[in-house]
Amino acid sequence: MQKLEPEAGKQNTILQKVIEINRTVFKNNIFRPNQQEIILASLSDKDIFVCMPTGGGKSLTFQLPAVINNGLTVVIMPLVSLIQDQVAHLNDLNISNRVIGAFKSKNSSNIFSEILADSSVKIIFLTPEKISKSQKTCDFLNKIYKQGKLNRFAIDEAHCVSQWGREFRSDYLKLSMLRKKFPNVPIITLTGTATEKVRKDVINVLKLKNPQVFLASFNRENLYYEVREKNTSKIVGEITEFIKTNHLKNSGIIYCISKKDCEKLAKDLKKEGIKSSYYHASMTDKKRSSNQVKWMEGKILVLVATIAFGMGIDKKNVRFVIHYAFPKSIENYYQESGRAGRDGHISDCLIFFSYSDKYKHDRLIQKNKQTDRNFQELYTIMKYCENFTTCRRKIQLEYFGEYFDPIKCNKMCDNCRNKNNETQEDCSETAKKILQVLANQPDGINTLAQLTGFLKGIKCKKNEDLTDFPGFGSMIDMKTEDIGKVIRKLIYDDAINEKTVKCSKKFKMTKLELGSKSTEVLLGTMKIYLPVILKNKLNTNDQVYKQNEQNTHVEKTQGNQQISNNSIYMQNNGNNIIMQIGKLRYNPPMQSTNNFQSITYIEKPRLSIDSWSSFKNKPFVPSSFFPKQRPSLEKAPFLSDDYIPRIPVTKDVELILDTPVTVNQKSNDYELNDEQYEELKERLEIVRKKLSRISGKSIEEILSNDKLDKLSRTMQSEDIQKEFTSEILYFQKVNQISIENSSAERFEFHTMRRFNEDSYKRLKFN
């Protein structure tokens, strides 16, 4: 038998002891990947950095060495709930431990004395605040250090040390004093997610000495990733269907940005027969704890929560994690979605994406000092959500610096499952036009919505002096959605910066300006490409095309008139109407043909009227809105050249026909996107508060929340004036209007205001 060298023999003995304790004390037959190596490095008194995804077994790497060694291991954790879970687990294993402060009732002096007197204690738990703010705790640590009983520090959730991390905490930063005060005590740092930048920062801040770095694969093979477009009007039904179809009796988490969304969504799901409740930071501790316990025990299946919920939650059988709005970074998404499938069974991770949710994140980011970095993180996750071709697992893992072959995804993401063929469309010329407009930075063109409106040629008070400005209306033939995509692509590629600026003492806004890569785009040395998915362009799920496919065709010519390709010809009850984007014309009846074609790439029509003066000079078209004659200025005094109304056209295009119509559609069906809604609502909220201060009335008396929401969904940005005086006068006019169901003869004001009601409501003037 070969003789072992002394050092090799010692290592062999330690390894045998490690294996034995893992089996007898921790009841594990084998080690998970990297666990054994980390434990041996720890027993060699090395500094260690461990990045291991959720469920990888990080806790064992500091618990097992603590059992083997004499002395104490000090474990620092950010949350009391995390410590409670650790204590409960160690107590079950009969491993002696103590907690300094937190939920223990004993005062700190008694705890310190008890620890010093009891040599069986192996692990001490505390929060970083106890080290940074408690002198007694520091004195105690210094005492056991001098006695040679302080074996190691274990810092859990170590990414909190780094200002580049997703959950930076200032008290974690103060842990840098550990190396100075206890220079010979090894430190092991542990985290579930960390980019290379975060890893380097943690190592530098904590002054780790030649640390051994252990990086486990971030790939969670059992998680299925999917992103869906968010339709606010249908999302509750879509989530309900998803849960009832796939996870009727399974536990899940739904993450929302706001507390209001949490409560509302939980209530809506409960109405649909899904056992659900909510969780957010503004709840009482008792209520939060109660809901969490019910969810852990399975009495509640779905917990709708803000990001206040999650860290320290160890429920193995979570089958789905849904993001009602996209998360604030890929790092956050990895952590939050990673709460699903910890038992190794297949689980779903689903994001509902809408660009407008960015503005909710913006408001939170603007409260943060690291605004620019947070915006970059936000853009990265937005690019992830808008990518419908690249393997989602590949995008996530490469963010953390890990190469991944998409073949190994095994169709466990929507993009790999759908295998969308794509081509790249060169949008460089469009991008140049956008940058040229932005280079001149016209006053009043600050946000993405304002820039899009300017390029589309939408006139409003903010840009009424800019109609002759170069670039105004230069993209009138493009879809609003497509213009937005190009602008967002320029933002993602650093050709446009979205900067946060103060517009008053209390309020901030985002402003677009030229980015670092703008010159390259303008010179043509950098191309801007947008992916185009090659599939059937006819949206078979669109009710418009389903309903009208058999009576709709493209008319190339008719008589001596030339009709554009994006005109739609329809026949209904013998009345033929020609609609064109931005135009309304009434033509005599024409002979229909039988050569029907599917309509593709057609923008949802909007019939716009630039002003009352231009509207009254246009040929009058009888319809259900104006059944007898054009409304007079006397009947509608708000219609003046200072006011720019817009008439909607619904998807089924019946609105312009002289037949009754029932509308039950949200603002996005009328091309008022959520981005505009958020902007208008925020602006109107400012006006409402100002009016409240001026008049001494409550904001509800000035305008109810319900009416405020309706106005935000129905107004165009041109309805809002820049000066408060004009806004207040406008508000007073709005408040003179009462809603009631009136006869057909009354002027149907709602068609100008674009209210979305289950049945038509008429507005009259008092």
UniProtKB/TrEMBL annotation:
GO terms for cellular component: chromosome; cytoplasm; nucleus. Residues 39-212 form the Helicase ATP-binding domain. Residues 219-386 form the Helicase C-terminal domain. It holds the Pfam family Helicase_C. Residues 663-697 form a coiled coil. It catalyses: Couples ATP hydrolysis with the unwinding of duplex DNA by translocating in the 3'-5' direction; ATP + H2O = ADP + phosphate + H(+). GO terms for molecular function: 3'-5' DNA helicase activity; ATP binding; ATP hydrolysis activity; DNA binding; four-way junction helicase activity. It is found in: Nucleus. This is ATP-dependent DNA helicase. It comes from Stentor coeruleus.
